[in-house]
TrEMBL record:
One of its GO terms (biological process) is DNA repair. The keyword Hydrolase applies. One of its GO terms (molecular function) is phosphoglycolate phosphatase activity. Signal peptide: none annotated. Its EC number is 3.1.3.18. Keywords: Hydrolase. The keyword 4Fe-4S does not apply. Gene3D superfamilies: HAD superfamily/HAD-like, Putative phosphatase, domain 2. The gene is gph_5. It is an enzyme of class 3 (hydrolase). This is Phosphoglycolate phosphatase. InterPro entries: HAD-like_hydrolase_sf (IPR050155), HAD-like_sf (IPR036412), HAD-SF_hydro_IA (IPR006439), HAD_2 (IPR041492), HAD_sf (IPR023214), PGP-like_dom2 (IPR023198). GO terms for cellular component: cytosol.
Amino acid sequence: MDKRHFIFDIDGTLINTEKAIIKGLQELLLEVKGVPYEPEQLYFCLGIPGPITLKQLGVEGDLTAVLKKWDAYYCKHGGDVTIYPDIPEVLKKLKENGISLGVITSKNQEEYDYDMIRLGLADYFSITVTATDTSEHKPDPAPMLFYLEKAGILPEQAVYIGDSIYDMKCAEGAGVPRALALWGCKNPEEITADYRLSRPIDILGLV
């Protein structure tokens, strides 16, 4: 498959942030709502921007301040964040094959910097689109359309690799081929994709 740009989601695709996100959100909700939540009640938030999550959970007031609290709780559990096996090696080999690497994420720029720079992954990517860059977010195609314009490429010159239905719908809406990262996916049987990847190393089969 002749692709010039491999575009990645971050959470659940490049790095495993699930424990830190869910633990932080549980602690936040206990503080601001006084309600204990089970992890299963919060999995829906994986892959969508924080403000949308808070609104769906009925959190009111100054959401900017609440998000800062959530970030603090997340950072408290930063030791739980890990890079998925073989990801650095895969990214290195893709670049050696002349593939341009990019990111489209629901993280804002500050959250992106915290994880990607700290874990040593940021330098692999030439183009990044965060929630800070567009007014509409996944599953809307706006972030992907923004990326295509920024890169100056056609949809068929890219592939988007992500773990959630939000990722796949974002790519589909922009006409970009979709590769589902099964290693971080919660409900793969409910998600349609052009390619289904069992392990990070399988990404190299798309070259």
